[in-house]
Amino acid sequence: MKFWVGVTDNNWYQFLANRDFEEVNFWQPSARPLFVNPEVGMPFLFKLKRPANHIAGGGYFVAHSVFPLSLAWEIFGEKNGARSLDELRETISPHVSDARRDPDIGCTVLSNPFFMDKFSWMHDPPGWSPNIVRGKHYDTEEGAGLEIWNRVIRYFVMPGSGSKVSDSATLSGGSEAKVKFGAPVLQKPRIGQSTFRVRVTDAYKRRCAMTGESTLVVLEAAHIVPYSKAEGSHDVSNGMLLRSDFHRLFDRGLVSVTPQYLVRVSPRIKEAYFNGKAYYRLDNQPLQALPDNASLRPDRDRLDWHFRNCFQA
Fold this sequence. Notes:
Elements: E1 2-8, H1 10-17, E2 23-28, E3 43-48, E4 54-68, H2 69-76, H3 85-92, E5 104-115, E6 122-123, E7 135-139, H4 143-157, H5 165-172, H6 177-180, H7 193-203, E8 219-223, E9 239-243, H8 244-251, E10 255-257, E11 263-265, H9 268-273, H10 277-280, H11 300-309
Parallel strand pairs: 1-3
Antiparallel strand pairs: 1-7, 2-5, 3-4, 4-5, 4-6, 8-9, 10-11
């Protein structure tokens, strides 16, 4: 199994190590991805810069996308490793031509991040060159990669390491991680709210499902069945990319989508607000944008749930 060791900003690491996020944004000032065609669930280890020069934690790859700096802050907030948008902009500004113009940045989304206690950090990873700027792939089947992987494993099974059982299970792929640790397998990471928005945005090619609008800053990922419900989830098939006004209308049941992918607009808009011409022209019209991958399209049973339980017909 391949895994990535990425050169990690020390301040980013220290900021996030003191928080308990289920996902983080490992951003880069360049929009160019760190690697090509990674598998979801690939381990991603944090290699601190000098003077630390240690592997000190990691996470699991979920998605990569590119967003304007301000939108990356809106999506991830402190999961960017900063206290505010201004602080994030100040951190990025030395690496871009003009941070005031809201530059695009690369966003590598990592799930289930873990941060080792300093006693467990790995000094001078084998096979590492000081000329590496972004990171390096390793393979658990080869000498240097196997050695690094085994040292990560020892951290999770070492008494007093402070690791969580859930973290151990994630690395090994099973609930018996404390006993059977060692078999390297890819994971299906837990998907959080920020990851949901990134994946829905890209699945719809950055176009509103109902209108086809492609102005990215007004597009939002809407849940069909609310995440707070037992049937709700952060799966892409439980979401649609919607223009912000349609997102609000959808959440309030003033618009809906049938299992046949037809937009329905509630008469309550006209009754309550004496307006809505811009919305009614879409009534009974097919969705304007859908994911190419059929498995990512809105789940018809969930659409039926929303139409029957939320839509103000």
